[in-house]
Amino acid sequence: MRGAWFAGVLIAVALLGTSHGFAADLSTDFDNLGSDDSGTRRDALKDIGLSKDLRALVGINDFLAGNLYTWKTHTVSVDSTTDKTTVPALDPVTRLSTGDAPTADLVNLSPTRRERLLCRDTLIILSFNDPDRAKRLAALTKIGDSDNVAALEPLRAALASEKDHHLTTIGHESLLLLQLQDDAPEHASDRLAAISALGAIGTSRALGPLTDLSRDQPTLTTSCLMAIARIESWQRVARGASYIFSGISLGSILVLMALGLSIVFGLMGVINMAHGELMMIGAYATFMTQQIFTHFLPSGVHDLFFVVAIPVSFLAAGAVGLLIEATIVRFLYGRPLETLLATWGVSLILIQIVRLTFGDNIAVNSPSYLQGGATIATDIILPYNRLFIIVFCLACIFGMYALIERTRLGLLLRSTMQNRRMAASLGVSTRRIDAFTFALGSGLAGLAGCALTQIGGVSPDMGQNYIVDSFMVVVAGGVGKLIGAIVAGLSLGCMTKGLEPFVDAVWAKVLILGCVIVLLQWRPAGLFPAKGRMVDV
């Protein structure tokens, strides 16, 4: 027992001594920054970068800021010497006080331009071992964009201990990019291997360096051009995947909008031109929820605002929709053109009210758990906010299906939609069903607005950008058909994003409208027309 205790003490002493040894070596390197020899200073900066000691970060930043001074043959850190006879001096590594230094005895260490570049690379190399993942990612990315070939060995050492797969992938790309800059004759084979590897990876980061290398090194031109061709081929695939994914997320918004329009128009025959403004109400309800969390709740729960905003946006838009139905729409059933004009007027009123209240443009910040993206392949990143929109849309679709097909309320809704008179004669309160349906459709528009805040800005006229597309989805898919709204919404979203690289937004709208017209000439009732004996009643 006593032996084990003695061994533990020896190990602790050894570790403490090693730690002090590292601190002493690092302090010596900082002292060398005061040398008159430029080579000694550059070597000191390189040694500081190789030390892996994160305490050096503050000292290097002090050097860049002009806060390092030489005093009594040592380098110290001083905040300011303005209008002072003595100032407190700190050790640049340990940040412990070394006494009060007379300002007359201090000699400022001003880095040259080359030393500033070395400091930049030193900060990057030190950050390879930072416990903060975001800082490690930034460092591993930046080093590949530099020409600091001396960072190859520290980078290899950092990658050997890195456990994060994404960071390892980024670091490996940076390693290959640094090998492109290594023009030492003994490393010529490594350079060729790096060219080939970058071509196989297909990363866009390599296009610029490979193009420059093919121009500057004629002996490597053929290899570089082959790698560039492979990269460009993969980048076309990556861009295509990005357009498809963006189209699916946009289509998900259109599906949410069309779901509400479809059941309102299919059940009540109401052409609701204010549906886009109900989406806008959901977006502003999300903004207000964020403001409440930000200003009145502890910072630890700020990210939860979006979870609360989902039901709030549904209820807010649903309440406004219920008010519109009770005060205007209920008196216009059976007169679709008049409902169109009335709801269009309501949309203008809502836009102006919101503009006078909130102004023109605001933004909703994404919560931390929806920031960033999932990398599934080189340069193919699926943003978490768009993934959320797709999953959210699927959840709403399944919820609507369960409500319509598996509940008594859904049965009453379907019976009213198929034959209003027969449903009323059997005791169904069609008046309540109409109000519920309008409120439900409005709430779905509010959910669409809540989701849209994650990929776009919030403005009073934002609904005008989606109302026409939503009606096209309803008509093309088939009025009152859930599956029709899904297929048509996703198709129009993918077509919109797919046309973006080739034509501007106006011509894309024109082409899509032309496709819808052609579709309706072929299938006037949409892709999924209603079936049954009462269809034409």
Q: Quickly count the helices.
A: 20
Shape: elongated
Write down the Rg. 33 Å
Distance N to C terminus: 95 Å
What is the helix/strand order?
HHHEEEEEHHHHHHHHHHEEHHHHHHH
Q: Major sheet: order of its strands? A: 2-1-5
Beta strand %: 5-15%
Helix content: 55-70%
Helix/sheet category = mainly alpha
What is the number of E strands?
A: 7
Taking pLDDT < 50 over at least 5 consecutive residues as the criterion, the unreliable ranges are 1-22, 532-537
Structure explained in plain terms:
- The strands form 3 sheets. A 3-stranded antiparallel sheet has the order 2-1-5. Strands 3-4 form a two-stranded antiparallel sheet.
- The termini are far apart.
- The longest helix has 48 residues, at 221-268.
- A hairpin with a 6-residue loop joins strand 3 (86-90) and strand 4.
- The protein is elongated.
- The protein is mainly alpha-helical.
- It has 20 helices and 7 strands.
- The protein has helices at 2-32, 38-50, 56-65, 113-126, 133-144, 152-161, 165-181, 188-201, 207-216, 221-268, 275-296, 305-327, 336-358, 384-406, 408-418, 420-425, 430-452, 464-477, 482-499, 505-522; strands spanning 68-71, 74-77, 86-90, 97-102, 107-108, 373-377, 380-383.
